[in-house]
Specification:
globular, binds S-adenosylmethionine, SET domain-containing protein, Beta-clip-like, alpha+beta, 12 helices
Length: 396
């Protein structure tokens, strides 16, 4: 069969008839190199000018697009390494980053495109020997500074370095083909903590690391490598799968404190389930009905969401506050509690921007709540719109 050659354009703009087969692997224009070292449809491609300071990819032709691969420009201001923070040997954790001044909540530590992108399927399916050869070739193609940063990462082989440092990224879209491992060598110097002071977000392949609380000078900068709301035992297991025994302050705290933290995490999960059920008016799950729960207990009330926020803050989940703040803002608005609604909405806006950025789904709604809670759809939904209001419209 013959395949049409696909133009070097973003995927979504390609013709439906534009396909690739093993026999017809696309050659991108200079300064791209490749396809090289192909294994079936996966090949090494490289561009010394793409991404932050050069990019190599191990992927199918499908995932090459102008969109993903053009250089990142006009990024936000990052902190200065060696000035705002520095590298140091952290007992039991290898190298880590330490704040050299107070770093304020919302400051961007690093914003980077990847140095290496490897499609997830070959990472699993290409035989290890072949894979190592491809990975080494991909790293060899990087400009020397970037290669140096890549090789400074933990791991004995290039394969090992990918395993221990990569993030899951999706190349312009969320199709199964678009899942890649992304390596950001500077970000790789940030150690894990279960209650980190930084949070990262990925926008296409751009990786942004941001402070989620004020960080005093001398404190280590940390990210969580796993889902932070798992109980301690499960977190330890996941991190062992990552290849290390976690020694962050949460993982080595006394048993009683660890048990209290696990208890709070369970309370958070229960409360979230209850709040979501009450807000979506789904029927009571059988076990709750069986416990004789009454209709009156089932009304959403401000106390529930205030409690949720308090638990998140007590648990120091600074990188996951957007959702509880947004819920708290809405429910307080529903009860006509203007100051509280506005206060939570302001916090929700900040947290949404840190955690997701401008494309955060709830951002417009929360901004409207900050602007004028009385004109928001949720305003007094639970208590009737008027009660002495100016518009004389009574709902009950
Ligand atoms: C992405 S690297 C972080 C930077 C690394 N420390 C270095 O020297 O380049 C991940 C590795 O750092 C170490 N590490 C990170 N967080 C840790 C933690 N909380 N406890 C123990 N070791 C940790 C582990 O060896 C892990 O495989």
């Amino acid at each position: 069969t013959t395949h049409h050659r696909c133009p070097f354009t973003p995927l979504q703009d390609r013709q439906p008839s534009c396909e690739f087969g093993d026999a017809d692997i696309y050659t991108p224009p200079a300064p791209w190199t490749g396809p090289e070292h192909c294994s079936t449809e996966y090949c090494v491609y490289s561009n010394p000018h793409a991404s932050h300071a050069g990019l190599s990819m191990i992927t199918t032709t499908h995932n090459l697009s102008d969109d993903t691969l053009t250089a990142n420009s006009g990024l936000e201001i990052e902190l200065k390494p060696g000035i705002d923070y520095y590298e140091a040997e952290i007992p039991g954790k290898g190298i880590g980053l330490i704040a050299n001044r107070t770093i304020y909540k919302g400051e961007i530590i690093l914003q980077r495109g990847p140095a290496l992108l490897i499609q997830s399927t070959p990472h699993v399916h290409v035989p290890p020997d072949r894979r190592l050869e491809m990975y080494e070739a991909a790293v060899d193609r990087l400009p020397s500074e970037t290669r140096k940063h890549f090789l400074r990462q933990v791991g004995d082989t290039v394969l090992d370095k990918v395993q221990r440092n990569a993030f899951r990224v999706f190349v312009s879209g969320n199709g199964t083909d678009s899942a890649h491992l992304g390596v950001f060598p500077e970000v790789s110097k940030i150690n894990h903590a279960c209650r980190p002071n930084l949070h990262y977000r990925l926008n296409n392949t751009t990786h942004t690391t941001i402070a989620v609380r004020d960080i005093p000078p001398g404190e280590e900068l940390t990210l969580t490598y796993i889902y932070a709301k798992l109980p301690l035992a499960e977190r330890l297991t996941r991190l062992r799968d990552w290849g290390f025994t976690c020694t962050c302050s949460q993982c080595i705290q006394p048993t009683s404190a660890a048990a209290a933290s696990d208890r709070r995490l369970r309370q958070i999960a229960d409360l979230e389930r209850e709040i979501d059920q009450l807000m979506s008016r789904r029927p009571l799950p059988p076990h709750m009905a069986a416990q004789g729960m009454k209709q009156a207990d089932r009304e959403i009330r401000p106390g529930l969401v205030a409690k949720l926020v308090e638990l998140y803050e007590r648990e120091e989940l600074w990188g996951s506050l957007a959702a509880p703040y947004a819920k708290a803002a809405l429910v307080h608005a529903m009860f006509g509690l203007e100051e509280e609604a506005r206060g939570y909405a302001e916090k929700a806006v900040g947290a949404l921007l840190r955690e997701t950025g401008e494309r955060a789904k709830d951002l417009p709604s929360m901004r409207r709540l900050v602007g004028d809670p009385r004109r928001h759809w949720a305003w007094r939904l639970k208590v009737g719109r008027d009660e002495g209001g100016e518009n004389g419209h009574i709902r009950y």
